Amino acid sequence: xxxxxxxxxxxxxxRISVTKLGEYVGSRSAARRKTILVDQxxxxxxxxxxxxxxxxxxxxxxxxxxxxPAVVRAAITAIQSRTxxxxxxxxxxxxxxxxxxxxxxxAPSLPLTGITFRKAPESAKPLLIAGVxxxxxxxxxxxxxxxxxxxxxxxxxxxxxxxxxxxxDAGNYVATLVHSYASxxxxxxxxxxxxxxxxxxxxxxxxxxxxxxxxxxxxxxxAACEEIxxxxxxx
Length: 235
Known about the structure:
This protein is of the alpha/beta class. It is 43% helix and 19% strand.
């Protein structure tokens, strides 16, 4: 389940979520970039609660070795059968059901074979880039057994937003950051497989894979974080 953000006031130090950083780097709109930073410095206490009802079924579908769609359909039925008293509750019921419908639509094309999915730790440390804490928090760790029994690792980040789909640029930047995070998360003999570092935009039914050519994207990300750090005190 997605934890509720608590109202803690403005964040004194630069901090941004991985998906918003991807959008920030990929956006050509100065106004949108400023809005992103203001929202990150002054986080709203309830913003992440809307997708709580579909979150556990989404993660559970991947963790379940059978990837049984019937379990997802049962979760949709349970969500739809709940009594609602307000328009906000009805909207929440609908978007959570829709998210799981999108998962079912996408499931046949998802890379599930030969991969063991497990829940990632919820208390993951942020990635520090050019003075900015970047909250990655992937939901799933991937264990991939290749030829000769060689084991490699990856990560999957779920993206749940009906109103702000990831653009090509934003999705590739986020996938690049997931890959960078995996390189820190799995060290020593635990080799990272770039091809299994993903961002799954659920509502858009798109799976972004960490790009093979990531050098320039990482430079772009670092430059954006330098800009964020310099702008933060004046927001």
